[in-house]
Design brief:
The chain has 383 residues and is mostly beta strands. It has helices spanning 54-57, 156-159, 268-271, 341-344; strands at 13-15, 23-28, 36-43, 64-65, 68-71, 80-85, 93-101, 108-117, 122-128, 139-147, 160-166, 174-176, 181-183, 188-191, 199-201, 207-210, 221-226, 231-235, 256-258, 274-282, 289-292, 307-309, 314-322, 324-334, 337-339, 354-360, 369-376. The strands form 6 sheets. It has a 5-stranded mixed β-sheet, with no helix packed on it. β5 (68-71) and β6 form a beta hairpin. The relative contact order is 0.18.
Length: 383
């Protein structure tokens, strides 16, 4: 969500007082526009639909038509680019934006999460070396302190929840419900757990592919094949990198940016080509390897699953990607989520982005307010 290049990378989180809206951008590979509608769904801290009615949080009738769209300009694969400024809401919390076709809510084409916060609590957070001695060189721990002096809390341990998120992922987000220290005189709550409940695998800097060119090969691209109706790209074959020392370089922390260098000064949202891009990883057979990153919704899209070819010894997957810069990693699906350490390695020095979201449920309230938000980017080294 976002219009400027930098804001493409930002998390969809906004203050309830912010005059600038979040903006949803998406493409439909088609010749003619469709009638798309949008509905907002208010959710609790666990992303279940809250007890609020539409008119409790919506300024107007909660069904909006997407009226702003543009046709792609001279692209081999035609598409229509839609733009939708997210309407203002009157309540903080978690929201799901649902887009559907022909005013039929059963014809859902996409959903996106976003968060609206109000600054009722003062929140501080820091990344520290984990208290666990075992494997501490591969972990990052988030310590949080919450001050609730503006609110009279009757039971801070049940009314307040703290959620930690790494690199805008939900699959490994951590919900902290048990404080480690509570001071009712100073009205502060500390979350500094010793049991690893606020630690994350630090991982490694993300792999990337530069698809900003079609007449040349960008970084980590082996070849680009330009045909009359399609553009094909093959990424360089890669290998696992679990061992060795940490190597620092710039990345987008798993996000991607739409951009083209083929048409300087133009609008990359409607002038960028789509490229059918194939990725290759050399690894042992018999593994369930997935590509992780925003480009596969962190492993949730079917294209995330890689297929092994015994002839080449490579796993591969192909994705239709709009020109730009794409970050990704490889990992395994496990019962506890995705494990990328055996392929990517994990180092405390790795630069990651973290978000701290603090939720509060007032006595007798029907929803969770998002009352504090902190964005952590220590050692920020974004492209």
């Amino acid at each position: 969500m976002g219009l400027q290049q930098e804001s493409q990378l930002d998390a969809p989180v906004i203050a309830i007082t912010d005059s600038r809206p979040l903006v949803l951008l998406f493409d439909d590979i088609a010749y003619d526009p469709e009638q798309y509608s949008v509905k907002l769904i208010h959710c609790d801290a666990n992303w279940k639909k809250s007890a609020l009615r539409d008119n409790d949080f919506s300024v107007s009738f909660n069904e909006y038509n997407i009226q702003e769209y543009s046709y792609s300009i001279d692209t081999r694969i035609p598409y229509i680019h839609y733009t939708f400024p997210v309407p203002r809401v009157t309540k903080s919390g978690n929201y799901v934006l649902k887009v559907y076709r022909n005013r039929n809510e059963n014809e859902v084409i996409l959903t996106r999460r976003f968060m609206v916060y109000e600054e009722l609590f003062t929140v501080g957070a820091a990344i520290v070396p984990p208290t666990e001695t075992e494997d501490r060189r591969a972990l990052q721990q988030i310590n949080v302190v919450v001050n609730y002096s503006k609110i009279d809390l009757s039971d801070p341990t049940t009314q307040v929840k703290v959620l930690l998120r790494q690199n805008q992922r939900w699959d490994n987000a951590k919900l902290l419900v048990k404080p480690t220290f509570l001071n009712q005189n100073s009205k502060s709550i500390r979350y500094e757990p010793f049991d690893g409940s606020s630690t994350f695998r630090a991982g490694n800097e993300f792999r990337f592919v530069d698809l900003r060119f079609i007449r040349a090969t960008g970084v980590n691209v082996a070849e680009v094949i330009v045909e009359e109706t399609v553009i094909l790209a093959n990424a360089l074959a890669e290998k696992p990198r679990p061992g060795g020392v940490y190597s620092q370089y710039l990345d987008l922390n798993g996000q991607y940016m739409v951009y083209t260098n083929d048409r300087p000064g133009g609008n990359p949202e409607v002038e960028s080509e789509y490229m059918y891009t194939t990725f290759y990883l050399e690894a042992d057979p018999g593994r369930n390897i997935l590509m992780l990153g925003a480009l596969t919704a962190w492993g949730n899209r079917p294209e995330a699953k890689m297929t092994y070819d015994p002839k080449t010894g490579h796993y591969s997957t192909s994705l239709l990607l709009k020109q730009g810069w794409y970050d990704y990693q490889y990992g395994f699906a496990t019962a506890d989520g995705y494990d990328s350490d055996p392929i990517e390695g994990s180092f405390f020095e790795t630069e990651n982005e973290y978000e701290v979201l603090v939720y509060y449920r007032a006595l007798g309230s029907r929803y969770d307010q998002l009352v504090g938000y902190v964005y952590l980017h220590p050692n920020r080294r974004r492209l």
